[in-house]
TrEMBL record:
GO molecular function terms listed in the Swiss-Prot or TrEMBL record: cysteine-type endopeptidase inhibitor activity
Protein name (record): Cystatin domain-containing protein
Similarity remark: Belongs to the cystatin family.
Keywords: Disulfide bond
Length: 117
């Protein structure tokens, strides 16, 4: 209890994927951009047992061609210069399922060059 533990298979970890999707939705809702961002790559994934679970993740987000208000189906990551923006983000999501409560407690992103992915 309390120690950070790496998540070996983040792609197939249901709790992690739920926390990641929540973080990305909250991030998209908080940006001034008119389009959505999607996960390009999970850089690191950890979990900490607290009063619930705290998922700590570092991901690369890519700017898509989907408008925020439109359905998010079949969104492609922009590749054209000027539109292709990538961010390296560290999210912390705290979830307490027995209270039906999930919170994004940290959302820190920096722009990166695509070559550094």
């Amino acid at each position: 209890i309390g120690c950070l533990t790496g998540i070996e298979d983040a792609e197939n970890d249901e709790m992690f994927q739920t926390a990641l999707k929540f973080a990305v939705v909250q991030h998209n809702n908080g940006t001034n951009d008119t389009v959505l961002y999607q996960v390009v790559k999970v850089v690191s994934a950890e979990v900490q047992v607290v009063a619930g679970f705290k998922h700590i993740m570092t991901v690369i987000l890519g700017r898509t061609n989907c408008e925020k208000e439109a359905p998010a189906d079949n969104c492609g990551i922009h590749k054209e210069p000027g539109f292709a923006r990538h961010h390296r983000c560290k999210f912390e999501v705290w979830s307490r399922s027995w209270l039906n409560d999930t919170q994004l407690i940290s959302d820190k992103c920096d722009s990166i060059e695509r070559a550094t992915e």
